[in-house]
Design a protein that fits this description.
heterodimer; A: 114 residues; 12 strands; B: mainly beta; globular
Chain lengths: 114, 115
């Protein structure tokens, strides 16, 4: 079955440190990939997406993600964490050949320490 | 441009009751999807409506239903509420029916608590 795995339900970093949130998917066909952020008591906001073309995708708030087909991964990074980055992050995948409804990972809570 | 509006934001219901949640999509968007978000299960897809027709359905019991009106506004209904239905219900709207490159815009959600 096609699935999306986010390693680590919680990631803790210090302010100014590198942020790395991991996302892997199971599919032999390159899918479309998304990262969403959810702040407390809010809906999901799109950070960035990969459809085709350049595998390094830049998003809002200084985040970027790289699609690596050989590793079936789409990890999210940010060079320097800010306190305002503390939130829940979701990786979502639209698998080709299906219903085109995105499958979401379980989410990773990013904690930023001062 | 107004975003996706969900009402009410918070709701407390008793087991056995029914509830109706409302979602107004972004103006011009014709697709509305509903998700259930819980700490244990994450985001689970409920259903998608496009042009007043249900196009896709997730793996939820028949107690969960929905509909879409001609103005693209959507409602979802849960009958015979159970404690396990307590969740954040998110609505997402898109310009077009779900596709490979369809971007979804989410509302703030309705927090349903069943007691």
């Amino acid at each position: 079955a096609q699935s999306v795995t986010q390693l680590g339900s919680h990631v803790s970093v210090s302010e100014g440190a590198l942020v790395l949130l991991r996302c892997n998917y199971s599919s032999s066909v390159p899918p479309y990939l998304f990262w969403y952020v959810q702040y407390p008591n809010q809906g999901l906001q799109l950070l960035l997406k990969y459809t085709t073309g350049a595998t390094l995708v830049k998003g809002i708030n200084g985040f970027e993600a790289e699609f690596k087909k050989s590793e079936t991964s789409f990890h999210l990074t940010k060079p320097s964490a800010h306190m305002s980055d503390a939130a829940e992050y979701f990786c979502a995948v639209i698998f080709s050949g299906g219903s085109y409804i995105p499958t979401f990972g379980r989410g990773t809570s990013l904690i930023v320490h001062p | 441009k107004a975003g996706v509006t969900q009402t009410p934001r918070y709701l407390i219901k008793t087991r056995g009751q029914q509830v109706t949640l409302s979602c107004s999509p972004i103006s011009g968007h014709r697709s509305v999807s509903w998700y259930q978000q819980t700490p244990g299960q994450g985001l689970q897809f409920l259903f998608e409506y496009f042009s007043e027709t249900q196009r896709n359905k997730g793996n939820f019991p028949g107690r969960f239903s929905g509909r879409q009106f001609s103005n693209s506004r959507s409602e979802m209904n849960v009958s015979t509420l159970e404690l396990g239905d307590s969740a954040l219900y998110l609505c997402a709207s898109s310009l077009a029916q779900a596709g490979m490159n369809t971007e979804a815009f989410f509302g703030q959600g309705t927090r349903l608590t069943v007691v």
